[in-house]
Every structure is written in structure tokens, then in C-alpha cells.
């Protein structure tokens, strides 16, 4: 008999790393934690906590000694040593969330998924950090909302055309993908994460009318092409090969823009982004702060590690947001060596809370 802990949660918020990119995590409200002997089938069946089975980090090679109650709605098998899928999972008709993150699962091990009709109502499938070379066949899941195959060895997005058009969040970061394709049917997609791949071109995004977050950091992209996206709120193109920031002009709903570690020489194409709150253009080749005079909502401005020579003109450049700006980074620019550098910035920004690494109460 193996003794496990069941944790019952309610509420579920999925979150992303930009950078390139972001890390996937669950933020949950813990309601109850009850110890249950899994091999006692009747007890597990009657216990309401059996709706969630969390076996994270048990280093299991298989589930032979684990009872799988038919009432399960969430099964978390993160950080084990599984290389095959227990066929009993295919009978969990109430299952909504299945996480196989950080195991030893290769393509062949997922073949049974395509015939597990009892799981057709699954909403979240996490296969992050395994040994996959291809997008698995998940056609059977016709209500899928979240699909995560990040941190694998996937070289192509071919196979995404079989994923349900109900999808809201798609994570394929840290793979070997070279082309954006087979995503045109995702009309309800809110989050697309393709950071840390081998993408050179932004393409085939025009049908993603409801996309709100686009994460493309750590690729090889040279030119911005958002294909007419209007609802986008967060964009990351950090660590690419951009030399210009033109291309965001129509993104009037944009709130966060991350462009650090590129080769951008001029701040431009920003004047229409009136909803922008966070702008990160650090580690580029900028010499002037410009084209943000209209941005009244700007709160965070990251300009560190550029070639900005003087603080002269900064007050005029941020005139519309000087009251709202709470964080500014200018370190590792020539202007940061100005006498009374911090005092000058605190005078310009009356509500500043942080200058570089210095936090003010």
C-alpha cells in the first residue's frame, strides 16, 4: 500500500515566461489537504478530495501501485519517471486536466491517446519537458483549452491542424520549430508561446483575431509582421535580430512590449500605442529617447544597456507619462554617469519608485 496526499483546489489560473519567454505554472487556491491510502479503492471513491490526484515528484516509473479513482477531474503526474501511459487513464471519463510534465515520454508512448474516447472532454493537456519529436495526435479532445508541448525536441508544428479550434492557450517554447504553420483555425486563441525556437519569419498570424499574448523571444526574427492583429496586449520579441521597431503601429490595445537584446537603433512606431504600460527596449543600440510623448499610461520604461549619451530631453520625451512612471532603468548608458543622475530623474518623475536597482519607499 502506498500513501499519498490528495489536495483539493478550486480556481485555476494559467501563467507564462517571456522572456523569450515565460515558465508554465499553476496558481491555485488550496481548499483542503487530506491523506488517503490510494490502494483503498472504496475510500478514494467516496472522498470528494479524489477529484484531484497530485503525484508530483514521486519519481514513479509506473502507476501499478496507484489507485486511479473514476471520479478524478485532475491528474498531475509532474516530475516522475514515466515512459508509458497507464491504460487506466483512458477510462477517466470525468478528467479535465492531465499533466505529464517532466517525464520520459517519447512519441510512441502517446499513440493510445488518439483512441481514448472517454477523455474527449479533456480541457488541459500538459506534455512539457519530455522527449517528443512531433506534435501528438490529440484529435479526440474536442474541448481542449490548453495544450503545452514546450521543452521537447519538436521540429515542426505539423499536426496542430488536428488540435481542436476551442484552444485558448498554446505553448510550444524551447523546441526546434522553424516555421509558424497550421494555426489558422485557432480563432479563439488568447496566448501563443513560441519562444526559444528557430523562427525567422512572423507569418500566418492573421486569423488569430482574439490573440492577446504573443511570445516569440529567443528566435531569429529580423522583421516585425503582426499580420493585422488588433487585440494583442502583450508581445515579446526579446533576443531576436531586429534592427527596427516599426510594425506595432496598429496595435492600439498593446499594454506590454518587450524588445530587449536586439539591434534596434531608433525608438519609432510607438506614438499610437496609447495603452502601453510597460516598454522594455534594453540592450539595444539606442542613442535617444523618443516617440513616446503620447504614452500617458506608461509605468515601466527599461532603457538600460544602450548608448543614450545625455539626460537632456528625457523630460520632454516622457511628458505625458511623467506622473505615472514608477520604474525606469538607464544604467549602463553614458547618461548614467551624469552628476546627480538619480536626483535629476527623481525630479523629472515625481512618483518614481525605482531607478535602476535603487528602490525608494
Automatic annotation (TrEMBL):
<keyword id="KW-0677">Repeat</keyword>
<keyword id="KW-0433">Leucine-rich repeat</keyword>
<dbReference type="InterPro" id="IPR003591">
    <property type="entry name" value="Leu-rich_rpt_typical-subtyp"/>
</dbReference>
<dbReference type="InterPro" id="IPR001611">
    <property type="entry name" value="Leu-rich_rpt"/>
</dbReference>
<dbReference type="Pfam" id="PF12799">
    <property type="entry name" value="LRR_4"/>
</dbReference>
<dbReference type="InterPro" id="IPR032675">
    <property type="entry name" value="LRR_dom_sf"/>
</dbReference>
<dbReference type="InterPro" id="IPR025875">
    <property type="entry name" value="Leu-rich_rpt_4"/>
</dbReference>
<dbReference type="GO" id="GO:0005737">
    <property type="term" value="C:cytoplasm"/>
</dbReference>
<protein>
    <recommendedName>
        <fullName>Protein phosphatase 1 regulatory subunit pprA</fullName>
    </recommendedName>
</protein>
Amino acid at each position: 500500500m502506498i500513501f499519498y496526499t490528495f489536495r483539493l483546489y478550486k480556481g485555476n489560473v494559467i501563467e507564462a515566461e517571456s522572456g523569450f519567454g515565460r515558465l508554465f505554472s499553476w496558481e491555485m487556491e488550496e481548499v483542503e489537504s487530506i491523506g488517503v491510502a490510494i490502494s483503498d479503492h472504496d475510500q478514494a471513491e467516496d472522498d470528494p478530495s479524489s477529484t484531484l490526484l497530485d503525484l508530483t515528484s514521486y519519481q514513479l516509473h509506473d502507476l501499478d501501485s496507484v489507485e486511479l479513482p473514476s471520479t478524478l477531474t485532475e491528474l498531475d503526474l509532474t516530475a516522475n519517471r514515466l515512459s508509458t501511459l497507464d491504460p487506466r487513464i483512458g477510462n477517466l471519463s470525468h478528467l479535465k486536466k492531465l499533466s505529464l510534465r517532466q517525464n520520459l515520454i517519447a512519441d510512441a508512448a502517446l499513440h493510445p491517446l488518439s483512441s481514448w474516447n472517454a477523455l474527449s472532454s479533456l480541457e488541459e493537456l500538459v506534455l512539457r519537458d519530455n522527449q517528443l519529436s512531433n506534435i501528438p495526435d490529440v484529435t479526440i479532445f474536442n474541448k481542449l483549452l490548453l495544450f503545452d508541448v514546450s521543452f521537447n525536441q519538436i521540429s515542426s508544428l505539423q499536426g496542430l491542424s488536428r488540435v481542436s479550434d476551442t484552444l485558448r492557450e498554446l505553448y510550444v517554447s524551447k523546441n526546434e520549430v522553424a516555421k509558424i504553420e497550421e494555426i489558422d483555425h485557432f480563432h479563439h486563441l488568447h496566448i501563443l508561446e513560441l519562444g526559444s525556437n528557430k523562427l525567422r519569419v512572423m507569418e500566418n498570424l492573421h486569423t488569430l483575431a482574439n490573440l492577446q499574448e504573443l511570445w516569440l523571444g529567443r528566435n531569429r526574427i529580423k522583421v516585425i509582421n503582426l499580420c493585422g492583429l488588433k487585440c494583442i496586449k502583450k508581445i515579446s520579441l526579446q533576443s531576436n535580430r531586429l534592427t527596427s521597431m516599426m510594425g506595432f503601429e496598429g496595435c492600439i490595445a498593446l499594454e506590454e512590449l518587450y524588445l530587449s537584446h536586439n539591434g534596434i537603433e531608433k525608438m519609432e512606431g510607438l506614438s499610437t500605442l496609447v495603452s502601453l504600460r510597460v516598454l522594455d527596449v534594453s540592450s539595444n543600440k539606442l542613442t535617444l529617447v523618443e516617440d513616446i510623448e503620447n504614452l500617458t499610461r506608461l509605468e515601466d520604461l527599461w532603457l538600460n544597456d544602450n548608448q543614450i549619451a545625455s539626460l537632456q530631453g528625457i523630460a520632454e520625451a516622457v511628458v505625458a507619462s511623467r506622473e505615472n512612471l514608477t520604474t525606469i532603468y538607464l544604467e549602463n548608458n553614458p547618461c548614467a554617469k551624469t552628476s546627480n543622475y538619480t536626483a535629476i530623474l527623481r525630479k523629472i518623475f515625481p512618483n518614481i519608485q525605482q531607478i535602476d536597482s535603487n528602490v525608494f519607499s
